[in-house]
Design goal:
The structure is a homodimer of 253-residue chains. Chain A is built from 6 helices and 10 strands, in the order αααββββαββαβαβββ. Chain A is an alpha+beta fold and 253 residues long. In chain A, helix 2 packs across helix 3 (49-61). Chains A and B meet through helix 4, strand 7, strand 8, strand 9 and strand 10 of A and helix 4, strand 7, strand 8, strand 9 and strand 10 of B. Strand 7 of chain A pairs antiparallel with strand 10 (232-237) of chain B. Chain A binds a DNA duplex (19 and 19 nucleotides) through residues 10, 12-14, 37-39, 47-51, 53-54, 56, 67-73, 201. Chains A, B: Pfam families: GntR, UTRA.
Chain lengths: 253, 253
DNA sequence: AAGTGGTCTAGACCACGAA
DNA sequence: TCGTGGTCTAGACCACTTC
């Protein structure tokens, strides 16, 4: 189609395409509907497939589309509000906890974790794997690092294996007095194993929530939770799941 | 180098490249150092430039690299911890506030904002633009929506224009009793104007923090703050800026 | 003017899911 | 087996910064 003269200050094609598609999604498509395939869409808009894909990637990042290899591209439902850190003064594994313990091992954590826990860099800690499911969809995978000193009364005889062992460790943790917790959120990319659990490809964008549980002035446990960035909106503070529905890309100027 | 036989389950080239580059960054480069240009790097690794770029994009997303058109690719410093919602019971504009008011207009907000504020969809509200700078770098741009009913004593005579007017509106807001606030975080992409303020390109990944300020049982103000996802780690809770330095991509398995 | 990253193209082949 | 999205290539040109 040759050179286009879309704008006086030429906006990238993929950006313009993203805008056009956004409007089309809101007016002509409903949630769950399947879009035409990438080759057809690219032809329809007169761009290369790579350019079309760049626009789709943006929309997927913003949680408006969901793409699955071998299946197709569908219109995504609105992001789910996921409460984080509302159990402000509860240990992981408390009664109202939404996490499913999956496994527990005893191993040496990465150096950065050891430093935060103030354990030696060669010291093994309990590593509990948990997953979080909302509305039938997996939304997060977590690694919980618990120094052996935080669960001193745990004996080998108590701890069979797998999820049962994870629960035993968490139960022991409850016995200590929790003084507070600190949360941090940052953008990351899913490692291969997390990606698999979250039903995404490696490198998919995730929100990494790091929580430090503090007891007796020290870090008694460290949680690193990996949330799907495309489907989740993390809520903090007083009342969690209130629907604000602020769309991060369509605001007044 | 022809076809590679890296893995029995073939890992994508860009993903492998990302791993190799991550290790190289940690062992052979220091913060601020300039990498070879993309064409040279691609040739060195025997891949197409597009593939190399896919790996660099990942690393930039993870906050390890910084790329600037016309300049080059540099090793990024560790993400800065940015406290969010620690002023848990303070209005925006309080004494210790880190935001710089830039402007203030009176306009009709987007429908989603009007709904959250419980104002009519055609009702104009004060819109305060503020920016946040840390370590000399812009990290966030904010739009604050304040219904006129939240600052009833504000008179036209008090409000000249620009930053001064923004400060006047915030000052009026302080007079009300704040009951609480709610925060939500999600991934978004920077609009053109935010991108410019954050020194990024349109579509750059951002963490969108939506805060609802509650007074007298109603939403008295709504803040939508856009943080650079590549350079920021948002901290919540008791004590803000503690360095945990958890690297979101290099954890034990 | 030279060099950088950003955009775009037109192909090819692969991995996966469903029929 | 077929259709989907995912990866990869080898180019071209553009926008921006610096000299």
């Amino acid at each position: 189609m040759g050179t286009t003269q879309l704008e006086s200050v030429p906006e990238p094609k993929y950006w313009h395409l993203r805008t056009v598609l956004t409007e089309a999604l809101e007016s002509e498509f409903s949630v769950g509907e399947i879009l035409p395939n990438e080759r057809d869409l690219a032809a329809r808009f007169g761009v290369a497939r790579a350019t079309l894909r760049q626009a789709l990637e943006q929309l997927e990042l913003e949680g408006r589309l969901q793409r699955r290899r071998g299946v197709g591209t569908t219109v995504a439902p609105p992001r789910v509000g996921v409460a984080v850190g509302t159990e402000q003064h509860a240990w992981p594994g408390a009664a109202d906890d939404v996490w499913q313990p999956a496994d527990c091992t005893l191993a040496v954590p990465p150096a950065s974790v050891a430093d935060a826990l103030e354990t030696g860099r060669d010291e093994a800690v309990h590593i509990v794997r948990r997953s979080r499911v909302t509305h039938g969809q997996p939304v997060a995978a977590e690694l919980l690092y618990i120094p052996q000193s935080s669960v001193p009364d745990l004996t080998a005889i108590d701890t069979p294996s797998g999820a049962a062992r994870a629960r035993a460790v968490l139960r022991e943790l409850q016995r200590r007095e929790l003084e507070g917790q600190e949360n941090a959120v940052e953008l990351g990319s899913a490692r291969a194993d997390d990606a698999k659990e979250l039903d995404r490809l490696p490198g998919a964008p995730v929100l990494v929530v790091t929580t430090r549980y503090i007891a007796e002035g020290r870090t008694a446990a460290l949680s690193v939770a990996t949330y799907r960035a495309d489907t989740c909106r993390l809520t903090f503070g007083d009342s969690g799941g209130v629907e604000i529905h602020q769309d991060p890309e369509r605001r007044a100027s």
